[in-house]
Amino acid sequence: MSFIDPALDTYIHAHTSPESDVLQALSRETYLKVSMPRMLSGHLQGTFLRMISQMLQPRRILEIGTFTGYSAICLSAGLAPDGILHTIDINEELEDMQRRYFAAAQISHQIQLHVGNALTIIPQLPTDLPLDLVFIDADKQNYSHYYDLVIDRLRPGGFIVADNVLWSGKIVAPDPDKTTLALIAFNEKIQQDERVENILLPIRDGLMLARKR
To answer: Where are any strands of DSSP class E within the chain?
Structure first.
């Protein structure tokens, strides 16, 4: 996932606001107990997500891919007082850990956790308010499908953030596999969609940031 010289990466982290105690504990437990811990958003990316949310002050956030809850905690930091973050994950085994850390971060009252297939859950979500912010960080082969499900529900001026869009550099490597091809197609889909303006950021494993016009 790293595209930066380790010394420079250390410098970047040293000049980024530190993690909260809750996030530090969550990161440690994830690396100790959960398989594929690198799926965690982590310090740098989490801080970016937090600041995007704090700038938008959203009332409705949708996160596709909860994992252990790190990114949800970061995204919740900017929620309006009556705001709700809907987060979806297919792995029911992580639910207890997610809820425990949401409680530790004192955000349980603003989190709606959904366990199951996002492709079927998203159409069933409440439509009382448009989405202000969407974070896509689930199975890569469905990124384009997730985008299609949320773009019309996103308010003008709202943002979509998609993780892992550089895929450890495989995105420009020869002989791409199915997952890489899906991400290439997703990146091109965003680039060609006149409904949004976008920038691909080389943060961690690549973040596509798209703003609905």
So the answer is: 60-64, 84-89, 111-115, 131-136, 154-163, 196-201, 207-212
3-state DSSP assignment of residue 151: helix
Edge-first strand listing for the sheet containing 207-212: 111-115, 84-89, 60-64, 131-136, 154-163, 207-212, 196-201
**Sole residue written with tokens 């003008």:** 156
For residue 63, the number of C-alpha atoms closer than 13 Å in the C-beta half-sphere is 28
Q: What is the dihedral angle through the alpha carbons of 189, 192, 198, 201, rounded to the nearest 10 degrees? A: 60
* Two structure tokens written together for 141: 């082969």
* Residues 117-174 pLDDT 10s: 999 999 999 999 999 999 999 999 999 999 999 999 999 999 999 999 999 999 999 9
For residues 52 and 109, give the distance between their C-alpha atoms in angstroms, rounded to a whole number.
Answer: 21
Query: CB atoms < 10 A from the CB of 191, how many?
Result: 12
Residue (of 22, 25, 123, 112) closest to 66 by Cα position:
112
DSSP code, position 10 = H
β partners of residue 87: 63, 113
